[in-house]
Input
Amino acid sequence: MTAYIMAFIVGGLICVIGQLLMDLTPLTPAHVLVLFVVMGALLSGIGLYQPLVDLGGAGATIPLPGFGHALVVGTIEDVDKYGFWGIFSGALRASATGVMAAVVFGFAMSVLFNPKG
Output
């Protein structure tokens, strides 16, 4: 039960930060998307995002900073395993499932439903 509450709090705080950035700054949703992915990667690279993942679980891994975190973690793992070539394979391996799921489900929804407009 505590894991659900922490995931809700951490994920909610990430969403609040994103909403405040869009409401109080001239940043567009696309800017916030890129900012969150890059910040997740940077925080992961310096070791600050993993404690947030440990605390918030899915609340930290599902939002956009979690994608940046996954890219960095995958790259570090593959560099340790394959050396220099892991730089190129790590991010792709770590994100392939999520990207593929988005493509498949996006395509399925476009086939099943007609947009009105």
Notes: Helices lie at 2-24, 29-45, 49-56, 58-61, 64-82, 86-112. The chain has six helices and no strands. Residues 2-112 form one domain.
